[in-house]
Amino acid sequence: MPTLVGSILFGLLLGASLPRSIALGFYLVGSFLMIAGFFFGNRGPVRPRGAADIGGLLPTGSRRLRWATRQESDDAINFSAVFVALGFVLILLGIASDNKHALF
User: How far is Cα 26 from Cα 88, in angstroms, rounded to an integer?
Assistant: First the structure.
């Protein structure tokens, strides 16, 4: 819903046609979700040990790292699948609502 409303408002601001602005919004958000899902699912098995270990641009001292738990690995794969699936659905909605190219 936010994608639809944002696309309509942005399209009206630029003077684009309504179906084209909706399609481009779905394309952009769907592509972003698919890329985010890819990178989220390819996260490595090593995690920082605590919040204090994250940060700093220079690698001073030793970083305390730990292996991800099974639950963290499963969550990463599941969230990745959800992001990619939602992105794919949004791209399909963009294709269906695009008036520049006819499906049939």
Answer: 10
